[in-house]
Amino acid sequence: MVALNPPMPGDRSHRARRLFLWLSALLALVAVVSIQTGASGVSLAGLWDGQGLSPRDKVILWGIRLPRLVMSMLVGAALAVSGAVMQGLFRNPLADPGIVGVGAGASLGAVVGIVLGGLLPVWVLQQAGGQLIGLMAFAGSTGVTLLLYRVATRGGRTSVATMLLAGIAIAALTGAVTGVLVYLADDQQLRTLTFWGLGSLAGATWGKLGAVLPLILPPLLAAPLLARGLNGLALGEAVAAHTGLPVQRIKAGAILIVAAATGASVAVAGGIGFIGIVVPHLLRLSVGPDHRWLLPNAAVLGAALLTLADIAARMVVAPAELPIGIVTALIGAPVFLWILLQRRGVVDL
To answer: Domain range spanning residue 326?
Structure first.
């Protein structure tokens, strides 16, 4: 029997839908494993036999592991979607969220909070409520991104090339200032800087989730609205403008999404690399470059991969814990090299 609406040649929408379902199932499986992984064993049998959890297991499950799981899913989705948006905006498969200076700005903000935070008035520290490093990191990433946007915008038009070059310059400048502050830090501050830079989800709480959710969730929900525009930009800005697409609004929206999602993610989890560059690459091999399918699949795969990395971070040196940034680098770097070897003809300049 002939299908009434057969897929067009090259149409990968059916494959993308199936992949989304498989990735969702993978995320659910990884979530169950994550809840049961840690230095203290938690038995979930009581949830199934009707007897309930013990008071100890309730504290571990609801107070520690569930907020950590939700945080890993949010941060993983935010980094992966930001990477896909940046690659679509720059029309470059090697772009990642750090290309707009988000990572450099967040690092500078965190270093300022760690090294100079003790010089702030007591009432400021009380208002921060132990979240000073995260707040400073988000402020740094947002400030650098706004500065880049201002530098790259002239006459109401934003130059992506200028933003890239300015991002390199500002990243070098913030790196130099960061180096000066690191030189002034004492031993305890250096230890804090090291662990923050390597990334960790160990400090996830419901309070942190409540603070970061309004910053990450709206960009994740808004990103698919840019799918058509990012597809149009793949043809070039001039062609996209001639087709009626609001090119400037698309670029501004993409930058805003990346700044908010990545800045908030770096603020709460520290430096976590390769998720934003590897996940979109892996998905393009399967679903192609259409952002209508790439973005939702990137969100689910990014959430699953970062949760899986968090599980590995807790298991490798148990009962201690590896910084999650080390795990993502150990996994992401070989995968990225494999992708480059497989597609050398595509990325050759």
So the answer is: 56-341
Q: What tens digit of pLDDT does each residue of 201-220 get? A: 887 888 888 888 888 999 99
pLDDT digits (tens, 9 = 90+) for 146-205: 888 888 888 777 777 788 888 888 888 888 988 888 888 888 888 888 887 888 888 788
Residue 51 belongs to a domain: no
Q: What type of residue sits at position 114?
A: I
Number of domains in the chain: 1
How far apart are the C-alpha atoms of 212 and 220, rounded to whole Å? Answer: 13
Q: Tell me, yes or no, whether 39 lies in a domain.
A: no
Is 15 inside a domain boundary?
no
| 251-270 per-position pLDDT tens digit | 888 888 888 888 888 888 88
**Residue 24 placed within a domain:** no
- The pLDDT assigned to 80 comes to 94
How far apart are the C-alpha atoms of 272 and 200, rounded to whole Å?
Answer: 8
